[in-house]
């Protein structure tokens, strides 16, 4: 039995339902069981919380559930006294003694971002987290802050109650197996160092395109939009995943310091080289009919990395909801004239992060070579690393501040383009890349 207790804030929310319960179940299935205390405002008991969790795990057999069920507990935070965590404190002590855990407490804030600060401060003020105790950790979902200034302020406030090594900031794309797959392919020499050389690369594209819309997350989405939801974090992380491969160290991508150093050299997105769009019918889907919202659901932009190893290689970013295809990928397009290369290079390399982890090499003569990673969800890995205290899979504060600096010039830009659902986005996004004589990579086309 494991020695950690997971205290899950937002236990009846969307993220717990969609990703975290199945990650918890996967870890239990792997023999890594640990007690969970769900925390929320809904008036549930241990029993009714277990019924709720069970409903979210239809794929788990009854036998398996019976083994897992006793690990789930619940503590309510009363609506009118959200700062009083005495009931939770008592519950933690009970659960720790029931499971003889060693007092490692992982507080996971699967909450709307505006609740990160009050929740973390309440944990500090109620002494549930002791500053300087590395066994007490707090996990923040993204986005951390709304811009650079607010991320700095949040960090400063947290530091009165906890040390940096107690703060675990999630970007679940760090838990995607693609990054480990790349490191392994490099180690085993399946990917030649020349593949990361600016002399052979024409340009890089990063895509975060989804057919899904905003579902039941209208409130969250309208306050955040595509930039804060996925560009400031997942999209830049995929770019880091590619760009850091030119580094000598296979594992540079798992160092927050190296990632921050790279981001400092990514040129901030400029409104003249960016297109922001919103899909038709957005206000209705977001539940804000009648209100005029500028929240973008689509972004396309061009940038570059001002480091000697990436000099002259354009980088194109594209992200959106309600589009015509669904994948998160980084694509390296190689130059056509590759005589100087000692080994034949493919026409392009497609590094897929979602829906599965794959690296695909497309050769000019039609041959495609594929490498895939075994499927373990990103959240299973993230949760495991939070429980064992492996900080390399979490974001550093400097990395977050640099990421905000990159997107900041667009945060106040007007969303001027509307696109129909099920399309590749606004026409202006096509023009943005076509003016350079290039086209967006698409899974819908064989050739670009
Ligand atoms: C989340 C975003 O972080 O990532 C969602 O908030 C997005 O808008 C999701 O749909 C995609 O993650 P994955 O792992 O399913 O590709």
Descriptive overview:
The strands form 2 sheets. The protein has a 9-stranded mixed beta sheet with strand order 14-13-12-11-7-10-9-8-15, with helices on both faces. It is 34% helix and 19% strand. With 448 residues, the chain is of the alpha/beta class. The model has no long low-confidence stretch (mean pLDDT 94). Bound molecules: 6-O-phosphono-beta-D-glucopyranose (BG6). The site of 6-O-phosphono-beta-D-glucopyranose (BG6) has 6 residues, from helix 8.
Number of continuous helical runs: 13
How many E-type strands? Answer: 15
Backbone structural class: alpha/beta
Helix content: 25-40%
Write the SSE topology.
Elements: E1 4-9, H1 14-29, E2 36-40, H2 46-56, H3 62-68, E3 72-76, H4 86-98, E4 104-109, H5 116-125, E5 136-140, H6 148-158, E6 167-169, H7 177-187, E7 201-209, H8 218-243, H9 256-263, E8 274-279, H10 282-286, E9 298-304, E10 314-320, E11 327-334, E12 348-354, E13 358-362, E14 368-372, H11 378-388, H12 397-411, E15 417-419, H13 427-434
Parallel strand pairs: 1-2, 1-4, 2-3, 4-5, 5-6, 7-10, 8-15
Antiparallel strand pairs: 7-11, 8-9, 9-10, 11-12, 12-13, 13-14
Helix pairs in contact: 1-11, 6-12, 8-12, 9-12
The chain binds 6-O-phosphono-beta-D-glucopyranose (BG6).
């Amino acid at each position: 039995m494991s020695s950690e207790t997971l205290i899950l804030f937002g236990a009846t929310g969307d993220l717990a339902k969609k990703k975290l319960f199945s990650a918890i179940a996967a870890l239990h299935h792997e023999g890594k069981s640990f007690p969970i205390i769900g925390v929320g405002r809904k008036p549930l008991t241990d029993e009714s919380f277990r019924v709720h969790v069970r409903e979210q795990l239809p794929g788990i057999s009854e036998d398996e559930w019976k083994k897992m069920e006793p690990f789930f507990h619940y503590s309510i935070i009363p609506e009118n006294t959200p700062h009083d965590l005495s009931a939770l404190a008592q519950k933690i002590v009970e659960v720790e003694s029931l499971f003889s855990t060693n007092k490692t407490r992982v507080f996971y804030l699967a909450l709307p971002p505006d609740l990160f600060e009050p929740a973390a401060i309440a944990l500090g003020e109620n002494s549930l987290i002791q500053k300087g105790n590395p066994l007490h950790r707090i996990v923040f979902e993204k986005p951390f802050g709304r811009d650079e200034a607010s991320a700095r302020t949040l960090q400063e406030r947290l530091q009165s109650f906890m040390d940096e090594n107690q703060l675990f900031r999630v970007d679940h794309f760090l838990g995607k197996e693609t990054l480990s797959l790349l490191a392994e392919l490099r180690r085993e020499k399946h990917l030649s160092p020349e593949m990361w050389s600016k002399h052979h690369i024409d340009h890089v594209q990063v895509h975060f395109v989804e057919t899904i819309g905003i579902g039941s997350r209208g409130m969250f989405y309208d306050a955040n939009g595509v930039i804060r939801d996925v560009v400031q974090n997942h999209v830049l992380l995929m770019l880091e995943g590619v760009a850091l491969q030119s580094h000598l160290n296979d594992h540079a991508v798992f160092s927050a310091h190296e990632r921050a150093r790279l981001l400092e050299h990514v040129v901030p997105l400029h409104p003249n080289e960016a297109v922001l769009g919103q899909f038709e019918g957005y206000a209705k889907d977001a539940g804000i009919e009648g209100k005029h919202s500028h929240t973008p659901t689509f972004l396309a932009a061009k940038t570059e990395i001002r480091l000697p190893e990436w000099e002259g290689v354009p980088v194109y970013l594209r992200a959106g909801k309600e589009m015509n295809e669904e994948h998160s990928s980084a694509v390296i397009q190689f130059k056509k004239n590759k005589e100087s290369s000692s080994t034949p290079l493919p026409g392009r390399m497609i590094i897929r992060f979602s829906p599965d982890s794959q690296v695909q090499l497309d050769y000019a003569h039609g041959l495609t070579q594929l490498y895939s990673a075994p499927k373990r969800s990103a959240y299973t890995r993230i949760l495991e690393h939070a429980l064992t205290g492996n900080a390399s899979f979490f974001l550093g504060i400097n990395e977050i501040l640099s990421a905000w600096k990159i997107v900041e010039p667009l945060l106040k830009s007007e969303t001027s383009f509307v696109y129909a659902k099920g399309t590749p986005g606004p026409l202006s996004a096509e023009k943005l890349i076509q003016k350079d004589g290039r086209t967006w990579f698409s899974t819908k086309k064989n050739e670009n």
